[in-house]
Q: What sequence folds into this?
């Protein structure tokens, strides 16, 4: 028998757990505002990272469009937040977010993980930067696809008067483009994707548990 100390902890957050937490969030105007404001911040960070890392004469239409759409998503979620609570703050102060530090940390840890892993490869600087962008985007879009689908269904069930179906469609397009480009550029696409997906699950697990704690304190 394998000792339990040798077993890796289960880092997978189930759809049921996500659904349960989001139901609690949507029921509260204050929590719902903070949730949407946090999503706005995350999309804003994504747009900034694209503009910061993807520079020079080789930037493609796909990258430009993706950066523009991420910025638009940030604005969209901010407008939804203010629709939920018109008296809500216009900025991203700590008090206006849900586990805000942990959410930002999740993004940065994933970014750093991919960066370190690809640094072990001998790659031209531009290729390295582009692959980092593609893999981080792929992992984020996979997670967003799951969370956003559940969230949108809850919005429908609660007749919330808001919808993110358009966002979901664009995120699906991003993911399709990332997969197609990565499969062409990286011979180790499948293996590397599995590796990064495991790390993303670990980082998301920590964020989700912190989010749960914050919700429990508020309800």
A:
């Amino acid at each position: 028998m394998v000792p339990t100390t040798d077993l890796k902890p289960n880092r997978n957050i189930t759809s049921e757990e996500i659904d349960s937490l989001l139901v609690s969030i949507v029921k509260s105007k204050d929590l719902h505002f903070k949730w949407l404001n946090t999503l706005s911040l995350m999309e804003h960070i994504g747009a900034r990272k694209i503009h910061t890392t993807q520079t020079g004469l080789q930037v493609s239409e796909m990258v430009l469009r993706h950066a523009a759409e991420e910025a638009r998503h940030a604005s969209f979620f901010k407008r939804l937040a203010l629709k939920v609570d018109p008296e809500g703050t216009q900025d991203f102060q700590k008090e206006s977010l849900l586990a805000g530090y942990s959410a930002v940390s999740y993004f940065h840890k994933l970014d750093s993980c991919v960066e370190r892993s690809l640094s072990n490869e001998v790659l031209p600087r531009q290729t390295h930067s582009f692959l980092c962008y593609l893999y981080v985007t792929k992992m984020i879009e996979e997670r967003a696809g799951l969370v956003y689908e559940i969230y949108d269904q809850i919005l429908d069930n609660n007749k919330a008067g808001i919808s993110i179906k358009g966002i979901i469609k664009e995120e699906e397009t991003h993911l399709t483009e990332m997969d197609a480009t990565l499969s062409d550029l990286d011979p180790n696409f499948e293996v590397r994707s599995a590796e990064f997906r495991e790390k993303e699950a670990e980082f998301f697990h920590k964020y989700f548990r912190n989010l749960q704690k914050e919700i429990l304190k508020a309800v």
Observations:
- The two ends are 43 Å apart (CA to CA).
